[in-house]
Amino acid sequence: MLDDRYKLAFKAYPYERSPDQDSEKPVRHPVVIMGGGPVGVATALDLGRQGIRAIVLDDHEGVGMGSRAICFAKRSLEIADRYGCAGPMLDKGVVWNVGKVFYEDRKVFEFNLLPEEGHKFPAFINMQQPYFEQFMIERARELQAEGMPIELRGKNRVDAVELKEDHVVLTVMTPDGPYTIEADWLIGADGANSPLRGMLGLEFQGRVFEDNFLIADIKMKGDNSFPTERWFWFEPPFKSGASTLLHKQPDDVWRIDFQIGWDIDRKEEMKEENIRARLDAMLGPEIDYEMVWSSIYTFQCKRMDRFREGRVLFAGDSAHQVSPFGARGANSGMQDVDNLGWKLGLVLSGKSPESLLDSYDSERAYGADENVLNSTRATDFITPKSEISKIFRNAVLNLSENHAFARPLVNSGRLSVPCVYDGGVLNSADSLQGGPDRTRPGASCPDAPVGDGHLLSQLGDEFVVLAINTDVPVALEDSGIKTRTLSIKSNDDPSGQLAARYLGDAKSAVYLIRPDQHVATRMEQYDGAALRDALRLATGQEA
Which of 33, 479, 483, 491 has the lowest CB atom count within 10 Å? Predict the structure, then answer.
């Protein structure tokens, strides 16, 4: 169905007996990660690259079956690039920026998610989730070979967790029987049905929407007429569902989502002949295809009340869940890791107090609420809950064909963008008069061409003082935390794109950028005292 590399990936970290299983008393590790999916492995990469020992425990031995998540956003690629594995993702993935929306048999409008130039990565790539996982696992193996303290343990199922004041005790089951280990910190990355969440008696709060969607991944044979774009139909003319979504993936595989209603017989809908009937109605008799994978899902928007429980931190689907339209699942999980990794690193190194991790909860809960809001709005537009709502939606779609004012109201799934932590507890005041709104404190840094490269690649994953058209006299250091200075002059920005994104109406600017490439503060000229206060605030110290 897919290429040989995909098939071989399913046993990426086969079971091996660990020395921990033969220890007379439980071995203590700085960090244990429960779950070997994309969020769990990304967390290990983030921490391992900081020199922090990270153990991933998973009850399987490699990547999961089925394509599952397929749309990976620009921000996820930028994070993966810092980990050293974005290159193969970009090579393998199907790049796209354009989406089209249809109503019945008419295209009502199209959109470009990245209309501006000067970015290293596209708005999105489509790629089966097993590839995304596999490339990160391969990178983890490379780092292991280089001596970095990352370990992936397959067939290690966590059966019990006991919280202590300063650590966590885990009982782990293996093919050789159980053993016990301890962790200073435990990270739950074990998915939407999180066993860890259940062990701790923590609840998922939210909403289940009364509609079902049938996913069919198919491999088309020969030529077909579909371009590399996101196509979404409301009330499609082929009558295979109330709405339909089409995406291209690598290996000539296409993802098709059919909206099939609430009161359904799942067993009947999952029969191959019934899935083929829907596909044939959509594709026509001239398209030959092979079915690769199918599933039925229900829209759900849920999250935990808090993402930290003592020495346990939750990330990804174990902490929050949203409907797939908008590609917020895996992408928001990568943003969780991006937010958590550097903070946990500072806490473990003794450079920041444990209370810094409370900002992980507040910032990523804010991001989860934003995702839930956008996902709920999309779901309500795609599946109107009343006759008057449906009349409004269809009027918007009809108007959108010829009237630009109506197009922003069309919601076939607002696609994932980085969260801006407005009002975040780590933000300092904005004193850059005339500065662009998109790079205000709390915002994720947009990329821009700088010299022969790109800005985000030069920022890396440490605290950086970014000086644009001004001088910074000395490197900043406080409480053992150092910053690196990146100075950019006008001749480094011949296109003017960096100035447009970071200066606006200002002539110069100084930014303090966090390790996750979010803006901590900005000002027009260097102010050492203000920068030092901002650094202390951003690292959990008293300003």
Answer: 491
* Half-sphere exposure of residue 54: CA atoms within 13 angstroms, side-chain side: 30
Give the HSE-up count for residue 136: Cα atoms under 13 Å, Cβ half-sphere.
31
Whether the pTM exceeds 0.85: the reply is yes
| Average pLDDT of every residue of the chain | 92
- CA–CA distances in Å: residue 229 to residues 94, 105, 123, 232, 255: 9, 17, 12, 10, 12
Does residue 225 have a pLDDT over 70? no
Query: In sequence order, what are the residues at sequence separation of 6 or more whose Cβ sits closer than 8 angstroms to the Cβ of residue 142?
Result: 84
Facing residues of 110 across strands?
100
Phi, psi at residue 84, to the nearest 5°?
A: 95, 20
Amino acid (one-letter) located at 537:
L
Rounded to the nearest 10°, the torsion over CA 387, 390, 391, 392 is: 120
DSSP state of 500: H
Contact 183, 31 (CB under 8 A): yes
Burial 291-300 (b: 16+ CB within 10 A, else e): ebbbeeeebb
In terms of Cα–Cα distance, which of 113, 38, 5, 6 is closest to 336?
A: 38
Q: What is the torsional sign of CA 319, 324, 329, 330?
A: positive
Give the pairing of strands 54-57 and 27-34.
parallel
Considering only CA atoms, which of 139, 157, 147, 164 is closest in space to residue 83? 139
- What does the alpha-carbon distance between residue 531 and residue 543 come to, in Å, rounded to a whole number? 10
Q: Please, are residues 403 and 418 in contact by the beta-carbon 8 Å criterion? A: no
- Nearest by Cα to 150 from 58, 9, 52: 52
pLDDT at 3 over 60: no
Angle between helices 329-348 and 356-382 (to 10 degrees): 180
pLDDT digits (tens, 9 = 90+) for 36-86: 999 999 999 999 999 999 999 999 988 776 657 889 999 999 999 999 999
Token pair for residue 50?
Answer: 């900081």
